Amino acid sequence: MDRQLQDGFGRSIEYLRLSVTDRCDFRCVYCMAEDMTFLPRQQVLSLEEIERVAALFVANGVKKIRLTGGEPLVRQGIVGLCERIAALPGLRELVMTSNGSQLGKLARPLAEAGVKRMNISLDSLDADKFRAITRTGDLAQVLAGIEAASSAGFARVKLNAVVMQGRNADEVVDLVDFAVNRGLDISFIEEMPLGEVGRSRGESFCSSDWVRERIAERYSLVDSAEQSGGPARYVRLKDFPDSRIGFISPHSHNFCSTCNRVRLTAEGRLLLCLGHENSIDMRALLRRYPETDQPLLDALQAALARKPLRHEFSVGGEVQVLRFMNASGG
Ligand code: SAM
Ligand code: SF4
C-alpha cells in the first residue's frame, strides 16, 4: 500500500490520535472544570464509526494510532475495539493513553487485544496531592494499574506527568526514581492552555528546562536522539539504561515542524492542529455516506492541505482554544 496522506507543507500524516470518549472518572485540574457537561451519547461516534475512520486512515498510510479521551477505558466495548483496530493490515502499532484507574482489570485484556504500548498519567506519588490534582482519583488504584500494566506484556509502559508549581513540582525527582526503579519511561509535560478550567495557568507553569535541571541534580543525563513518533524529546540516565526521560514542551520548544499527526475528537471532529480551531466534521460525513469512503477521503485531503504550519500557544497566556483537553484527545 503506497497511499500516503500529506499536508500542504509536505509533512506525511502517519499518526492518528483518536479520542474514544470525552468522559472520564477523574477531573484533573489542568484538563477539566470541576463541573463538566459531557456530550450526549448520539453525538459521540459509535464504535463502528471509530473503527471505520481508523480503517480509512490506515488504508491511507497511517502507521500508528493512539486511543485516548477522556479516559478511553471508561468506554464500553473498548477491548473489542482495540482488537479490531490492531488487526487492520498496515497498522504498525496501536497504543493508548490512560489514567490507569481501570488497568488493574484491563491491562492484560488490552495487551492481548494487541495494544503495543501504554502511557499512564501519574502526576503525584502522594495520595492527598494526587487527589487534589485529579479531584476524584485514588492513587492506590492507579499504582495497582501501573503494576498490572508492567506485567501485562506491553512492549513499553510510559508514565506522563504534567508539572505544576505549587502542586507537584517538588516531586519531579521522586517520580523519576519511581519510574527508573521499575524500568519504565517517564515524560514530563508542560501544561497547555486548553479550555477555561477556572484558574490562571501562568502561575503554575513549569518549563521542561526547569524540570530537566531538577533531574540533573540527581542523575547523570545523556542526550538522546530517540523518537517515538510523538512530540517528546528524550534523555537517558547513565545508570539506568532501561528508562527514558521525555520532555513534551509545547511552549518552550516548538515541535510543529516535524508534526506528523492529526486528532479525531470523540464527536468525530478532525483537528488538524491542537492549537487551532480549524477542523472537519467527520461524523457528518460518516453518517451521510454510510456506504462509501471516497467523500470522506476527499474532505480529508482538502482539509490536510490547510493544516497549519505551527500552533500559537503562549506561555501562561490567555486561553486561545476553547476546547477542553478531554474533548480533543491529549
Ligand atoms: N485520561 C487519559 C490520561 O489522563 O492519561 C488520556 C487523556 S488525557 C487528556 C491525555 C494526556 O493529556 C494526559 O497525560 C494528561 O496529563 C494530558 N493533559 C491534559 N490536559 C493537559 C493540559 N492542559 N496541558 C498539558 N497536558 C494535558
Ligand atoms: Fe481525565 Fe485524563 Fe483529563 Fe485527567 S487528564 S481529567 S484523567 S481525561
UniProtKB/TrEMBL annotation:
Catalysis performed (reactions): GTP + AH2 + S-adenosyl-L-methionine = (8S)-3',8-cyclo-7,8-dihydroguanosine 5'-triphosphate + 5'-deoxyadenosine + L-methionine + A + H(+)
Binding annotation for [4Fe-4S] cluster 1: C24, C28, C31
Domain of life assignment: Bacteria
Ligand binding (GTP): R17, R66, T97, K158, R261, V262, R263
Keyword check for S-adenosyl-L-methionine: yes
Annotated protein name in UniProt: GTP 3',8-cyclase
Coiled-coil boundaries: none
Pathway where it operates: Cofactor biosynthesis; molybdopterin biosynthesis
GO molecular-function terms, A-Z: 4 iron, 4 sulfur cluster binding; cyclic pyranopterin monophosphate synthase activity; GTP 3',8'-cyclase activity; GTP binding; metal ion binding; S-adenosyl-L-methionine binding
EC code(s) of this entry: 4.1.99.22
Domain Radical SAM core: 8-231
UniProt record similarity statement: Belongs to the radical SAM superfamily. MoaA family.
Residue numbers binding S-adenosyl-L-methionine: Y30, G70, S121, M192
Alphabetized InterPro entries for the sequence: Aldolase_TIM, Elp3/MiaA/NifB-like_rSAM, MoaA, MoaA-like, MoaA_NifB_PqqE_Fe-S-bd_CS, MoaA_twitch, MoCo_biosynth_MoaA/MoaC, rSAM
Manner of cofactor binding, per the entry note: Binds 2 [4Fe-4S] clusters. Binds 1 [4Fe-4S] cluster coordinated with 3 cysteines and an exchangeable S-adenosyl-L-methionine and 1 [4Fe-4S] cluster coordinated with 3 cysteines and the GTP-derived substrate.
Binding-site residues for [4Fe-4S] cluster 2, renumbered to this chain: C256, C259, C273
Function per UniProt: Catalyzes the cyclization of GTP to (8S)-3',8-cyclo-7,8-dihydroguanosine 5'-triphosphate.
Cofactor: [4Fe-4S] cluster
UniProt keyword list: 4Fe-4S, GTP-binding, Iron, Iron-sulfur, Lyase, Metal-binding, Molybdenum cofactor biosynthesis, Nucleotide-binding, S-adenosyl-L-methionine
